[in-house]
Amino acid sequence: MEDKQESYRQVVKATSLFGGVKVFAIIIAVIRSKVIAILIGAEGMGIASLFMSTLNMVNGVTNLGMDKSAVKDISYEREKGNENGMRKAIAILNRVTWITGIIGTLLIMATSPWLSELAFGNREYTLLFIWVAISLLFMQLTNAKLAVLQGIRRLNALAKANLLGNFFGLIGTLPLYYFFGIDAIVPAIVLATFLSLAVTHYYSLTNPLKGEAIGNKAAFSEGKSMIRLGIMLSISGLMSLLVAYILQIYISARGGVDQVGFYNAGILILNQYVGLVFTAMATDYFPRLSGIIDDLKKIQQTVFEQAHVALLLISPIIVIFIAFAPQIIRILYSGEFDPTIVFVSWAIMGMFFKAVSFSVGYIIIAKGDSNLFLKTTFSFNTLLLTLNILGYTYYGLWGLGMSFLVYYITHFIAIQIITYIRYKFYLKKEFYWVFITCLLICTSAFLASFLETVVWKYSLLVLLILIATGYSFFQLNKKMDVVGWVKNRFKK
Prior knowledge:
The protein has 20 helices and no strands. It is mainly α. It has one domain.
Protein backbone atom coordinates (compact mmCIF):
# COMPACT_ATOMS: atom_id res chain seq x y z
CA MET A 1 0.00 0.00 0.00
CA GLU A 2 2.81 2.35 0.96
CA ASP A 3 4.62 1.59 -2.31
CA LYS A 4 1.51 2.47 -4.32
CA GLN A 5 1.04 5.69 -2.37
CA GLU A 6 4.67 6.63 -3.00
CA SER A 7 4.28 5.85 -6.70
CA TYR A 8 1.26 8.17 -6.94
CA ARG A 9 3.16 10.80 -4.97
CA GLN A 10 6.04 10.58 -7.45
CA VAL A 11 3.63 11.32 -10.30
CA VAL A 12 2.07 14.25 -8.45
CA LYS A 13 5.40 15.64 -7.20
CA ALA A 14 6.89 15.62 -10.69
CA THR A 15 3.70 17.16 -12.05
CA SER A 16 3.76 19.81 -9.33
CA LEU A 17 7.41 20.66 -10.02
CA PHE A 18 7.04 21.00 -13.77
CA GLY A 19 3.48 22.22 -13.47
CA GLY A 20 4.82 25.09 -11.40
CA VAL A 21 7.45 25.77 -14.04
CA LYS A 22 4.76 25.61 -16.70
CA VAL A 23 2.50 27.98 -14.77
CA PHE A 24 5.39 30.43 -14.58
CA ALA A 25 5.94 29.94 -18.31
CA ILE A 26 2.22 30.54 -18.85
CA ILE A 27 2.35 33.79 -16.89
CA ILE A 28 5.25 34.86 -19.08
CA ALA A 29 3.37 33.75 -22.20
CA VAL A 30 0.26 35.63 -21.05
CA ILE A 31 2.26 38.81 -20.57
CA ARG A 32 4.03 38.32 -23.90
CA SER A 33 0.81 37.47 -25.77
CA LYS A 34 -1.10 40.33 -24.19
CA VAL A 35 1.60 42.88 -25.02
CA ILE A 36 2.18 41.48 -28.50
CA ALA A 37 -1.57 41.40 -29.19
CA ILE A 38 -1.78 45.08 -28.24
CA LEU A 39 1.43 46.17 -30.01
CA ILE A 40 1.19 44.19 -33.26
CA GLY A 41 -2.43 42.90 -33.29
CA ALA A 42 -3.85 39.75 -34.84
CA GLU A 43 -2.00 40.37 -38.12
CA GLY A 44 1.35 40.51 -36.31
CA MET A 45 0.54 37.34 -34.37
CA GLY A 46 -0.35 35.65 -37.65
CA ILE A 47 3.00 36.65 -39.18
CA ALA A 48 4.91 35.48 -36.09
CA SER A 49 2.98 32.18 -36.15
CA LEU A 50 3.93 31.54 -39.77
CA PHE A 51 7.61 32.21 -39.02
CA MET A 52 7.57 29.86 -36.03
CA SER A 53 5.62 27.21 -37.93
CA THR A 54 8.18 27.28 -40.74
CA LEU A 55 11.06 27.16 -38.25
CA ASN A 56 9.50 24.24 -36.37
CA MET A 57 8.78 22.38 -39.59
CA VAL A 58 12.40 22.58 -40.80
CA ASN A 59 13.57 21.68 -37.31
CA GLY A 60 11.34 18.62 -37.46
CA VAL A 61 12.89 17.61 -40.79
CA THR A 62 16.51 17.96 -39.67
CA ASN A 63 16.77 17.15 -35.94
CA LEU A 64 16.28 13.36 -36.42
CA GLY A 65 14.18 13.31 -33.24
CA MET A 66 17.34 12.89 -31.19
CA ASP A 67 16.09 14.96 -28.23
CA LYS A 68 13.36 12.34 -27.64
CA SER A 69 15.06 9.07 -28.60
CA ALA A 70 18.10 10.02 -26.50
CA VAL A 71 15.91 10.38 -23.40
CA LYS A 72 14.72 6.80 -23.91
CA ASP A 73 18.26 5.41 -24.28
CA ILE A 74 19.76 7.41 -21.41
CA SER A 75 16.86 6.47 -19.09
CA TYR A 76 17.12 2.79 -20.01
CA GLU A 77 20.88 2.72 -19.30
CA ARG A 78 20.31 4.61 -16.05
CA GLU A 79 17.75 2.06 -14.87
CA LYS A 80 20.32 -0.69 -15.51
CA GLY A 81 23.03 1.28 -13.70
CA ASN A 82 25.22 1.34 -16.80
CA GLU A 83 27.22 4.59 -16.52
CA ASN A 84 29.33 3.87 -19.61
CA GLY A 85 26.14 3.34 -21.63
CA MET A 86 24.82 6.68 -20.44
CA ARG A 87 28.07 8.46 -21.38
CA LYS A 88 28.02 6.92 -24.85
CA ALA A 89 24.37 7.92 -25.42
CA ILE A 90 25.14 11.50 -24.34
CA ALA A 91 28.18 11.65 -26.65
CA ILE A 92 26.16 10.41 -29.64
CA LEU A 93 23.41 12.94 -28.91
CA ASN A 94 25.82 15.88 -28.67
CA ARG A 95 27.72 15.01 -31.85
CA VAL A 96 24.65 14.34 -34.01
CA THR A 97 22.87 17.48 -32.74
CA TRP A 98 25.68 19.77 -33.89
CA ILE A 99 25.60 18.20 -37.34
CA THR A 100 21.80 18.35 -37.73
CA GLY A 101 21.63 21.87 -36.30
CA ILE A 102 24.13 23.26 -38.81
CA ILE A 103 22.46 21.42 -41.71
CA GLY A 104 19.04 22.76 -40.70
CA THR A 105 20.32 26.33 -40.42
CA LEU A 106 21.93 26.20 -43.87
CA LEU A 107 18.79 24.61 -45.33
CA ILE A 108 16.59 27.51 -44.20
CA MET A 109 19.08 30.04 -45.55
CA ALA A 110 19.30 28.28 -48.92
CA THR A 111 15.53 27.92 -49.35
CA SER A 112 14.50 31.27 -47.82
CA PRO A 113 12.98 32.72 -51.06
CA TRP A 114 10.73 29.69 -51.49
CA LEU A 115 9.84 29.57 -47.79
CA SER A 116 8.80 33.22 -47.96
CA GLU A 117 6.67 32.58 -51.01
CA LEU A 118 5.07 29.50 -49.46
CA ALA A 119 4.24 31.20 -46.16
CA PHE A 120 3.31 34.69 -47.35
CA GLY A 121 2.68 34.39 -51.09
CA ASN A 122 5.68 36.58 -52.02
CA ARG A 123 9.46 36.86 -51.51
CA GLU A 124 9.45 40.00 -49.38
CA TYR A 125 10.39 38.01 -46.25
CA THR A 126 13.44 36.25 -47.77
CA LEU A 127 16.05 38.19 -45.76
CA LEU A 128 14.07 37.69 -42.54
CA PHE A 129 14.05 33.93 -43.09
CA ILE A 130 17.83 34.01 -43.49
CA TRP A 131 18.16 35.79 -40.15
CA VAL A 132 15.70 33.56 -38.35
CA ALA A 133 17.59 30.46 -39.51
CA ILE A 134 20.19 30.79 -36.75
CA SER A 135 17.39 30.18 -34.22
CA LEU A 136 17.14 26.59 -35.42
CA LEU A 137 20.70 25.79 -34.29
CA PHE A 138 20.02 27.40 -30.91
CA MET A 139 16.80 25.39 -30.55
CA GLN A 140 18.44 22.04 -31.33
CA LEU A 141 21.38 22.61 -28.97
CA THR A 142 18.99 23.67 -26.20
CA ASN A 143 16.76 20.62 -26.67
CA ALA A 144 19.77 18.27 -26.61
CA LYS A 145 20.98 19.68 -23.28
CA LEU A 146 17.46 19.44 -21.83
CA ALA A 147 17.19 15.83 -23.06
CA VAL A 148 20.32 14.87 -21.10
CA LEU A 149 18.99 16.45 -17.90
CA GLN A 150 15.67 14.67 -18.41
CA GLY A 151 17.26 11.30 -19.14
CA ILE A 152 19.49 11.32 -16.05
CA ARG A 153 16.52 12.56 -13.98
CA ARG A 154 18.10 15.82 -12.78
CA LEU A 155 14.61 17.26 -12.51
CA ASN A 156 15.45 20.34 -10.41
CA ALA A 157 18.11 21.53 -12.87
CA LEU A 158 15.74 20.79 -15.76
CA ALA A 159 12.97 22.80 -14.11
CA LYS A 160 15.25 25.78 -13.42
CA ALA A 161 16.61 25.76 -16.98
CA ASN A 162 13.07 25.90 -18.39
CA LEU A 163 11.90 28.51 -15.91
CA LEU A 164 14.79 30.97 -16.27
CA GLY A 165 15.02 30.42 -20.03
CA ASN A 166 11.43 31.64 -20.37
CA PHE A 167 11.99 34.52 -17.96
CA PHE A 168 15.03 35.95 -19.73
CA GLY A 169 13.32 35.41 -23.07
CA LEU A 170 10.49 37.68 -21.89
CA ILE A 171 12.76 40.36 -20.44
CA GLY A 172 14.87 40.42 -23.58
CA THR A 173 12.13 40.49 -26.23
CA LEU A 174 9.35 42.76 -24.91
CA PRO A 175 11.38 45.97 -25.35
CA LEU A 176 11.95 44.99 -28.98
CA TYR A 177 8.21 44.74 -29.64
CA TYR A 178 7.61 48.03 -27.81
CA PHE A 179 10.10 50.02 -29.89
CA PHE A 180 9.90 48.27 -33.27
CA GLY A 181 6.45 46.63 -33.44
CA ILE A 182 6.05 44.08 -36.24
CA ASP A 183 9.67 44.65 -37.33
CA ALA A 184 10.79 43.07 -34.03
CA ILE A 185 9.29 39.63 -34.74
CA VAL A 186 12.42 37.98 -36.17
CA PRO A 187 14.97 39.65 -33.82
CA ALA A 188 12.77 38.60 -30.89
CA ILE A 189 12.69 34.96 -32.06
CA VAL A 190 16.49 34.86 -32.45
CA LEU A 191 17.15 36.55 -29.10
CA ALA A 192 14.67 34.34 -27.19
CA THR A 193 16.21 31.10 -28.53
CA PHE A 194 19.75 32.32 -27.77
CA LEU A 195 18.89 33.26 -24.18
CA SER A 196 17.21 29.88 -23.68
CA LEU A 197 20.38 28.13 -24.90
CA ALA A 198 22.61 30.20 -22.61
CA VAL A 199 20.53 29.37 -19.53
CA THR A 200 20.25 25.67 -20.40
CA HIS A 201 24.00 25.42 -20.99
CA TYR A 202 24.64 26.89 -17.54
CA TYR A 203 22.48 24.24 -15.85
CA SER A 204 23.86 21.43 -18.01
CA LEU A 205 27.25 22.12 -16.39
CA THR A 206 25.83 20.55 -13.20
CA ASN A 207 25.64 17.17 -14.99
CA PRO A 208 28.38 14.94 -13.51
CA LEU A 209 28.25 12.65 -16.56
CA LYS A 210 30.09 13.96 -19.58
CA GLY A 211 29.88 12.40 -23.00
CA GLU A 212 32.83 10.45 -24.34
CA ALA A 213 34.92 11.84 -27.18
CA ILE A 214 33.42 10.45 -30.37
CA GLY A 215 33.84 11.14 -34.08
CA ASN A 216 31.14 11.71 -36.67
CA LYS A 217 31.43 8.23 -38.20
CA ALA A 218 31.38 6.48 -34.83
CA ALA A 219 28.41 8.56 -33.64
CA PHE A 220 26.27 7.51 -36.59
CA SER A 221 27.55 3.91 -36.49
CA GLU A 222 27.14 3.23 -32.76
CA GLY A 223 23.97 5.26 -32.45
CA LYS A 224 22.00 3.44 -35.15
CA SER A 225 19.15 2.33 -32.90
CA MET A 226 18.86 5.75 -31.27
CA ILE A 227 18.95 7.49 -34.65
CA ARG A 228 16.47 5.03 -36.18
CA LEU A 229 13.90 5.68 -33.47
CA GLY A 230 14.74 9.37 -33.58
CA ILE A 231 14.06 9.50 -37.31
CA MET A 232 10.67 7.87 -36.75
CA LEU A 233 9.91 10.43 -34.03
CA SER A 234 11.20 13.20 -36.26
CA ILE A 235 8.94 12.08 -39.10
CA SER A 236 6.07 11.94 -36.64
CA GLY A 237 6.81 15.43 -35.38
CA LEU A 238 7.17 16.65 -38.94
CA MET A 239 3.79 15.22 -39.84
CA SER A 240 2.18 17.08 -36.95
CA LEU A 241 3.95 20.31 -37.87
CA LEU A 242 3.10 19.86 -41.53
CA VAL A 243 -0.56 19.31 -40.70
CA ALA A 244 -0.57 22.48 -38.56
CA TYR A 245 1.29 24.36 -41.29
CA ILE A 246 -1.03 23.24 -44.10
CA LEU A 247 -4.05 24.09 -41.98
CA GLN A 248 -2.71 27.59 -41.24
CA ILE A 249 -1.97 28.17 -44.94
CA TYR A 250 -5.50 26.96 -45.77
CA ILE A 251 -7.09 29.20 -43.13
CA SER A 252 -4.98 32.15 -44.33
CA ALA A 253 -6.02 31.62 -47.96
CA ARG A 254 -9.71 31.11 -47.15
CA GLY A 255 -10.26 33.44 -44.20
CA GLY A 256 -7.24 35.76 -44.04
CA VAL A 257 -4.25 36.23 -41.72
CA ASP A 258 -6.55 37.42 -38.91
CA GLN A 259 -8.22 34.01 -38.84
CA VAL A 260 -4.78 32.39 -38.49
CA GLY A 261 -4.22 34.62 -35.46
CA PHE A 262 -7.55 33.55 -33.92
CA TYR A 263 -6.78 29.87 -34.56
CA ASN A 264 -3.28 30.11 -33.05
CA ALA A 265 -4.59 31.97 -30.02
CA GLY A 266 -6.97 29.06 -29.41
CA ILE A 267 -4.28 26.43 -29.99
CA LEU A 268 -2.02 28.24 -27.52
CA ILE A 269 -4.76 28.03 -24.87
CA LEU A 270 -5.34 24.32 -25.53
CA ASN A 271 -1.71 23.21 -25.73
CA GLN A 272 0.01 25.61 -23.36
CA TYR A 273 -2.57 26.53 -20.74
CA VAL A 274 -4.96 23.59 -20.53
CA GLY A 275 -2.31 21.15 -21.76
CA LEU A 276 0.20 22.13 -19.08
CA VAL A 277 -0.77 18.92 -17.25
CA PHE A 278 0.49 16.81 -20.17
CA THR A 279 3.72 18.77 -20.55
CA ALA A 280 4.44 18.62 -16.83
CA MET A 281 3.74 14.89 -16.62
CA ALA A 282 5.65 13.86 -19.75
CA THR A 283 8.91 15.27 -18.41
CA ASP A 284 9.08 12.60 -15.70
CA TYR A 285 6.71 10.01 -17.18
CA PHE A 286 8.59 9.21 -20.40
CA PRO A 287 11.96 8.38 -18.76
CA ARG A 288 10.19 6.39 -16.00
CA LEU A 289 8.25 4.36 -18.54
CA SER A 290 11.33 3.84 -20.72
CA GLY A 291 13.24 2.39 -17.77
CA ILE A 292 10.68 -0.40 -17.08
CA ILE A 293 9.48 -1.04 -20.64
CA ASP A 294 10.42 -4.76 -20.55
CA ASP A 295 8.00 -5.52 -17.68
CA LEU A 296 4.30 -5.60 -18.73
CA LYS A 297 2.96 -5.56 -15.14
CA LYS A 298 5.01 -2.49 -14.26
CA ILE A 299 3.91 -0.84 -17.50
CA GLN A 300 0.23 -1.44 -16.69
CA GLN A 301 0.61 -0.01 -13.19
CA THR A 302 2.65 3.01 -14.33
CA VAL A 303 0.29 3.88 -17.19
CA PHE A 304 -2.76 3.36 -14.97
CA GLU A 305 -1.38 5.77 -12.37
CA GLN A 306 -0.43 8.32 -15.01
CA ALA A 307 -3.81 8.22 -16.78
CA HIS A 308 -5.64 8.29 -13.44
CA VAL A 309 -3.79 11.38 -12.19
CA ALA A 310 -4.02 13.06 -15.62
CA LEU A 311 -7.82 12.78 -15.64
CA LEU A 312 -8.19 14.01 -12.08
CA LEU A 313 -5.99 17.04 -12.74
CA ILE A 314 -7.34 17.97 -16.17
CA SER A 315 -11.08 17.73 -15.35
CA PRO A 316 -11.31 20.78 -13.02
CA ILE A 317 -9.17 22.77 -15.47
CA ILE A 318 -11.52 21.92 -18.35
CA VAL A 319 -14.60 22.92 -16.34
CA ILE A 320 -12.99 26.23 -15.34
CA PHE A 321 -12.05 27.07 -18.94
CA ILE A 322 -15.50 26.11 -20.21
CA ALA A 323 -17.10 28.35 -17.59
CA PHE A 324 -14.95 31.39 -18.16
CA ALA A 325 -13.69 31.01 -21.75
CA PRO A 326 -14.86 34.50 -22.88
CA GLN A 327 -13.28 36.25 -19.90
CA ILE A 328 -10.06 34.22 -20.09
CA ILE A 329 -9.57 34.95 -23.79
CA ARG A 330 -10.13 38.68 -23.29
CA ILE A 331 -7.67 38.72 -20.40
CA LEU A 332 -5.06 36.72 -22.30
CA TYR A 333 -5.46 38.67 -25.53
CA SER A 334 -8.05 41.37 -26.18
CA GLY A 335 -11.66 41.83 -27.32
CA GLU A 336 -10.39 41.53 -30.89
CA PHE A 337 -9.94 37.78 -30.27
CA ASP A 338 -13.58 37.02 -29.39
CA PRO A 339 -13.96 34.76 -32.47
CA THR A 340 -11.54 32.37 -30.72
CA ILE A 341 -14.14 31.67 -27.99
CA VAL A 342 -16.31 29.35 -30.06
CA PHE A 343 -13.27 27.33 -31.21
CA VAL A 344 -11.90 26.86 -27.68
CA SER A 345 -15.31 26.01 -26.18
CA TRP A 346 -15.64 22.92 -28.38
CA ALA A 347 -12.00 21.86 -28.75
CA ILE A 348 -11.31 21.96 -25.01
CA MET A 349 -13.55 18.92 -24.47
CA GLY A 350 -11.10 16.97 -26.62
CA MET A 351 -8.42 17.53 -23.97
CA PHE A 352 -10.35 15.19 -21.68
CA PHE A 353 -9.94 12.25 -24.06
CA LYS A 354 -6.36 13.29 -24.81
CA ALA A 355 -5.50 12.80 -21.11
CA VAL A 356 -5.98 9.05 -21.52
CA SER A 357 -4.63 8.54 -25.04
CA PHE A 358 -1.59 10.65 -24.07
CA SER A 359 -0.75 8.27 -21.23
CA VAL A 360 -1.37 5.07 -23.19
CA GLY A 361 0.26 6.25 -26.41
CA TYR A 362 3.66 6.69 -24.77
CA ILE A 363 3.96 2.89 -24.56
CA ILE A 364 4.64 2.72 -28.31
CA ILE A 365 7.44 5.31 -28.07
CA ALA A 366 9.00 3.86 -24.92
CA LYS A 367 9.13 0.40 -26.54
CA GLY A 368 10.88 1.87 -29.57
CA ASP A 369 8.26 0.32 -31.87
CA SER A 370 9.25 2.54 -34.80
CA ASN A 371 7.14 0.97 -37.55
CA LEU A 372 3.90 0.94 -35.56
CA PHE A 373 4.53 4.46 -34.31
CA LEU A 374 5.06 5.77 -37.84
CA LYS A 375 1.94 4.05 -39.19
CA THR A 376 -0.31 5.30 -36.39
CA THR A 377 1.13 8.82 -36.62
CA PHE A 378 0.50 9.00 -40.37
CA SER A 379 -3.06 7.71 -39.99
CA PHE A 380 -3.94 10.00 -37.08
CA ASN A 381 -2.46 13.12 -38.68
CA THR A 382 -4.23 12.43 -41.97
CA LEU A 383 -7.49 12.08 -40.07
CA LEU A 384 -6.84 15.29 -38.09
CA LEU A 385 -6.08 17.37 -41.20
CA THR A 386 -9.10 16.00 -43.06
CA LEU A 387 -11.47 16.72 -40.17
CA ASN A 388 -10.00 20.20 -39.59
CA ILE A 389 -10.29 21.25 -43.24
CA LEU A 390 -13.85 19.93 -43.50
CA GLY A 391 -14.81 21.59 -40.22
CA TYR A 392 -13.36 24.98 -41.15
CA THR A 393 -14.66 24.86 -44.74
CA TYR A 394 -18.28 24.37 -43.72
CA TYR A 395 -18.53 25.98 -40.28
CA GLY A 396 -15.46 28.19 -39.75
CA LEU A 397 -13.87 28.32 -36.30
CA TRP A 398 -16.88 26.60 -34.74
CA GLY A 399 -16.44 23.64 -37.10
CA LEU A 400 -12.72 23.61 -36.40
CA GLY A 401 -13.38 23.25 -32.67
CA MET A 402 -15.86 20.43 -33.27
CA SER A 403 -13.40 18.62 -35.56
CA PHE A 404 -10.77 18.64 -32.78
CA LEU A 405 -13.26 17.07 -30.38
CA VAL A 406 -14.21 14.34 -32.88
CA TYR A 407 -10.54 13.64 -33.56
CA TYR A 408 -9.57 13.18 -29.90
CA ILE A 409 -12.53 10.87 -29.24
CA THR A 410 -11.46 8.75 -32.22
CA HIS A 411 -7.82 8.79 -31.10
CA PHE A 412 -8.83 7.74 -27.57
CA ILE A 413 -10.68 4.66 -28.84
CA ALA A 414 -8.12 3.69 -31.48
CA ILE A 415 -5.00 3.91 -29.31
CA GLN A 416 -6.48 1.55 -26.71
CA ILE A 417 -7.40 -0.99 -29.38
CA ILE A 418 -3.91 -0.78 -30.93
CA THR A 419 -2.01 -1.21 -27.65
CA TYR A 420 -4.21 -4.12 -26.60
CA ILE A 421 -3.70 -5.99 -29.88
CA ARG A 422 0.03 -5.23 -30.01
CA TYR A 423 1.08 -5.51 -26.35
CA LYS A 424 -1.93 -7.02 -24.54
CA PHE A 425 -2.13 -3.77 -22.58
CA TYR A 426 -5.40 -2.65 -21.01
CA LEU A 427 -6.49 -0.24 -18.28
CA LYS A 428 -8.05 -1.56 -15.08
CA LYS A 429 -11.83 -1.45 -14.59
CA GLU A 430 -11.24 0.83 -11.61
CA PHE A 431 -9.99 3.48 -14.02
CA TYR A 432 -13.20 3.59 -16.07
CA TRP A 433 -15.38 4.45 -13.05
CA VAL A 434 -13.27 7.57 -12.57
CA PHE A 435 -13.28 8.20 -16.32
CA ILE A 436 -17.09 8.09 -16.57
CA THR A 437 -17.59 10.30 -13.51
CA CYS A 438 -15.17 12.97 -14.77
CA LEU A 439 -16.69 12.80 -18.26
CA LEU A 440 -20.19 13.41 -16.85
CA ILE A 441 -18.95 16.44 -14.90
CA CYS A 442 -17.15 17.96 -17.91
CA THR A 443 -20.07 17.25 -20.27
CA SER A 444 -22.51 18.86 -17.82
CA ALA A 445 -20.33 21.98 -17.74
CA PHE A 446 -20.16 22.04 -21.53
CA LEU A 447 -23.96 21.83 -21.84
CA ALA A 448 -24.49 24.39 -19.07
CA SER A 449 -22.35 26.91 -20.99
CA PHE A 450 -25.14 27.12 -23.61
CA LEU A 451 -27.78 28.30 -21.11
CA GLU A 452 -29.06 31.76 -22.02
CA THR A 453 -29.99 32.84 -18.50
CA VAL A 454 -26.74 34.25 -17.13
CA VAL A 455 -27.55 33.72 -13.45
CA TRP A 456 -28.53 30.07 -13.92
CA LYS A 457 -25.61 29.41 -16.23
CA TYR A 458 -22.88 30.71 -13.95
CA SER A 459 -24.49 29.33 -10.80
CA LEU A 460 -24.49 25.88 -12.32
CA LEU A 461 -20.97 26.25 -13.72
CA VAL A 462 -19.52 27.39 -10.38
CA LEU A 463 -21.23 24.42 -8.71
CA LEU A 464 -19.68 22.07 -11.26
CA ILE A 465 -16.24 23.62 -10.67
CA LEU A 466 -16.62 22.84 -6.96
CA ILE A 467 -17.82 19.30 -7.71
CA ALA A 468 -14.94 18.63 -10.14
CA THR A 469 -12.34 19.99 -7.72
CA GLY A 470 -13.81 18.14 -4.75
CA TYR A 471 -14.06 14.84 -6.61
CA SER A 472 -10.48 15.08 -7.88
CA PHE A 473 -9.17 15.86 -4.40
CA PHE A 474 -11.17 12.99 -2.88
CA GLN A 475 -9.80 10.48 -5.40
CA LEU A 476 -6.20 11.69 -5.09
CA ASN A 477 -6.41 11.66 -1.30
CA LYS A 478 -7.72 8.08 -1.40
CA LYS A 479 -4.76 6.97 -3.54
CA MET A 480 -1.89 8.91 -1.96
CA ASP A 481 -3.17 10.32 1.36
CA VAL A 482 -2.71 13.96 0.34
CA VAL A 483 -3.74 15.25 3.77
CA GLY A 484 -1.26 13.03 5.63
CA TRP A 485 1.51 13.83 3.14
CA VAL A 486 0.99 17.57 3.51
CA LYS A 487 0.95 17.31 7.30
CA ASN A 488 4.25 15.41 7.28
CA ARG A 489 5.80 17.98 4.97
CA PHE A 490 4.83 20.77 7.38
CA LYS A 491 6.18 18.83 10.34
CA LYS A 492 9.52 18.42 8.56
